[in-house]
């Protein structure tokens, strides 16, 4: 039987195990499109799955990886034919559906987005779920009514994948961007992406006041917990914060004061089950609003056999920007 290389996660007596191995074609799950995967990437959720630090994986065996870009090999879906270049993010890949750290993937055609003109498969994975989530956050703030004239926008977890892309996009759109980071040594890197100011995350890590001094018109937060509570308490009247991550925790120790006294809105961002039309819009906007030079500057490349070793690094905050994984 035909096999292909993949990072397989199995249930163990204590936790899980992850190993690069040969995976049998016969074990692929149902789907009407088979894709030859060329590139993948490394996200925070991938780190959780690879290390078993959180119960991300919900079926075994599992192929890890929540993102891929590649070329259609076979299709029973009317929208796709052999040779089409596609990108796929989320939809439970690497969690409930066999994922992207493999030479082959079989998925539902309804999950796929055509690779936009001007974005290579490698660039698409330099963007990945992190960058696509950043773009969804920008779209949500725009829908709320924010413009560069509204005032500054703060980005937390600024040196990470979501933060790096968010800064690059917002700065290109003309926003005054305030970058919050626990790695102030990355100040030059963040200003190179377009941040106008860099603040230490310690400013946002203490207990949040119900209402604090108004500092920004909006925010993009991938941290959660006390950081998000402080962001909301410091948002100007009528502003909004897009919440898209939980690097510091799932709790939100705040009050209703910012919402009922300042009209602040908390905008939830879900990248996993996001409707396909919004995905297409996000990818079109990434093609036009993300500087490819900046994208290259924030990206490093690794091989498939290096991925497992990077799991603890991304959870430990040791990974700057984006990591692309060369599959073939």
UniProtKB/TrEMBL annotation:
It comes from Bradyrhizobium macuxiense. It comes from the Bacteria. One of its GO terms (molecular function) is acryloyl-CoA reductase (NADPH) activity. NCBIfam families: oxido_YhdH. Coiled coil: none annotated. Residues 15-325 form the Enoyl reductase (ER) domain. This is NADPH:quinone dehydrogenase.
């Amino acid at each position: 039987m035909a096999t292909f290389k993949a990072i397989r996660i199995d249930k163990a007596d204590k936790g899980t195990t992850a190993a690069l191995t040969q995976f049998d074609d016969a074990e692929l799950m149902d789907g009407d499109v088979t894709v030859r995967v060329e590139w993948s990437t490394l996200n925070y959720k991938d780190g959780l799955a690879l290390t078993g630090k959180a119960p991300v994986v919900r079926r075994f065996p599992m192929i890890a990886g929540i993102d891929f870009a590649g070329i259609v090999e076979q299709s029973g879906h009317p929208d796709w034919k052999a040779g089409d270049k596609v990108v796929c993010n989320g939809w439970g890949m690497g969690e409930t559906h066999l994922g992207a750290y493999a030479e082959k993937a079989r998925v539902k055609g309804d999950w796929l987005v055509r690779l936009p003109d001007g974005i290579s498969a490698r660039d698409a994975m330099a963007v990945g779920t992190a960058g696509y989530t950043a773009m969804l956050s920008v779209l949500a703030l725009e829908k709320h009514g924010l413009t560069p004239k509204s005032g500054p926008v703060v980005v937390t977890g600024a040196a990470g994948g979501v933060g790096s892309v968010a800064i690059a996009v917002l700065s290109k759109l003309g926003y005054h961007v305030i970058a919050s980071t626990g790695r102030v040594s990355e100040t030059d890197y963040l200003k190179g992406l377009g941040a106008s100011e860099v603040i230490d995350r310690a400013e946002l890590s203490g207990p949040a006041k119900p209402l604090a001094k108004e500092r920004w018109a909006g925010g993009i937060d991938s941290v959660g917990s006390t950081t998000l509570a402080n962001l909301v308490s410091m948002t100007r009247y009528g502003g909004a914060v897009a919440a898209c991550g939980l690097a510091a925790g799932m709790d939100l120790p705040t009050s209703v004061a910012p919402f009922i006294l300042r009209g602040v809105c908390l905008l939830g961002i879900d990248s996993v089950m996001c409707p396909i039309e919004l995905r297409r819009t996000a990818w079109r906007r990434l093609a036009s609003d993300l500087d490819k030079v900046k994208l290259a500057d924030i990206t490093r490349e690794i091989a498939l056999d290096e991925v497992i070793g990077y799991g603890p690094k991304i959870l430990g905050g040791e990974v700057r920007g984006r990591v692309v994984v060369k599959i073939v």
